[in-house]
Amino acid sequence: MSELRSALDDLAGIDLAELSDDTLLDLVGELSTTANRVAAALTSAVRAADRREAYRRDGAVSMKAWLRGSCRMAPEQATATVSTGRRLEHLPETAAAFAAGEIGAAHAHVITMAMTPGRIAKAAEAGIDLGETDRILAGLARATAPHETARGVKQWVAGVDPDGTLDDAADTRRRFTMASGLDGRVHLRGDLDATGGEYLHSALTAFMNGDRPAGDTRSYAERQADALVALARGALDGGSLPDVRGERPHVRVTIDWMALCAERGAPGVAGGSLGWAGPINPETARRLACDASVARIITGPDGLPLDVGRAQRSSSTAIRRAIEIRDGHCIFAGCDAPPEWCDYHHVVHWAHGGPTSCDNGALLCERHHTCCHEGGFTIRRDPGTGRWHTYRPDGSEVLSRAGP
Ligand SMILES: [Zn+2]
Ligand SMILES: [Zn+2]
């Protein structure tokens, strides 16, 4: 400590007016990191004293009271320091970033504030890995100002505790939770009574027992997961759900205009985001924006909306019907998934000027629509024969391995 003190004395002796602009700015940056490290050391020391109840030696009732009395700390700062120290014990990555001075006390505070024991328990129950959450949030804090970090934290909270009712008495007889895990996955968990389970099972079975496309190698669990999503898509597409804030409910994708126009795999392209589930990669955002039934919000470089997708053009339904009749099923080589499983794919993406038309449209099941956007496959229709051809990312054609 005495060395630290004498270093600070030396620092106070520097004539700042003598320094060049560069040296001065370097010093400010250096001191900012050092201040973070000192704040982290203070937090650790407070935590150690808190854990062994050292404040009792001075007759204080709590560490917080001791900080207020002996250090004349503001009550909110005392509370923040004690609680940050306690919760950082469960967040080693955030603690390490703080100790290294890479993030400040304000960053550590916004992260630890959200990490209540109740939420941590709920996240664990939903299968969300706390270590992964810690790594993601620490990475976000290293790259952003505290108020921006707070936005990421809020997203985690919304996923884990969407209605803020964590303290409600849990009804263990029926419950269903969904949590978006910041890692691009959504975790589901729940219990139903026998009647509720029967309804859900009957609906899922209806989707699972339809004609299975040739070459379907999905496991039972994968098919059941796909059936659940299909059930939701069918309800949204059917238009029978109640309006939400005066609008027909549907999936909404936000994507940057530059990202929409970029080639697949182009470097440095921002991803898109979904209203609830959060960030998605640019290829996935382009695929969702490709289907005319998905509402899209296109943003400019400043993040402000440029265009809010034309709501449900009347022609798109008629065009889709025509394509369903023409194609009959998913047109990817070797697939015969039925139309109700399929998206309307723009062969030339509308962002590149491709029209929503029969000529430019193709039925692709979700799996193969994903192949065409995320996977780099392409499809082309021979105008002479009317037959569809499928090409791998290397340009070679996927040919039928059986039959003529
Ligand atoms: Zn598409
Ligand atoms: Zn397919």
Give a written overview of the molecule.
The chain is of the alpha+beta class and 404 residues long. The chain has four domains: 19-160, no CATH class; 175-238, no CATH class; 252-308, no CATH class; 314-391, no CATH class. 48% of the residues lie in helices and 12% in strands. The chain has 15 helices and eleven strands. The chain has helices at residues 2-13, 21-51, 63-71, 75-88, 92-99, 105-114, 117-125, 130-143, 146-160, 194-208, 220-238, 257-261, 282-290, 314-327, 366-373, and strands at residues 175-180, 186-191, 252-256, 272-274, 278-280, 295-299, 305-308, 342-346, 361-365, 378-381, 388-391. The strands form four sheets. It has a five-stranded mixed sheet with strand order 5-4-3-6-7. A two-stranded antiparallel ribbon has the order 1-2. A two-stranded antiparallel sheet has the order 8-9. A hairpin with a 5-residue loop joins strand 1 and strand 2. It is elongated, with a radius of gyration of 28 Å. The chain binds zinc ion (ZN) (2 copies). One zinc ion binds at residues 287, 290, 345-346, 369, 372-373.
Secondary structure elements and pairings:
Blueprint lengths: L1 H12 L7 H31 L11 H9 L3 H14 L3 H8 L5 H10 L2 H9 L4 H14 L2 H15 L14 E6 L5 E6 L2 H15 L11 H19 L13 E5 H5 L10 E3 L3 E3 L1 H9 L4 E5 L5 E4 L5 H14 L14 E5 L14 E5 H8 L4 E4 L6 E4 L13
Parallel strand pairs: 3-6
Antiparallel strand pairs: 1-2, 3-4, 4-5, 6-7, 8-9, 10-11
Helix pairs in contact: 2-4, 3-4, 4-6, 5-8, 6-9, 8-9, 10-11, 13-15
Bound molecules: zinc ion (2 copies).
One zinc ion binds next to strand 9 and helix 15.
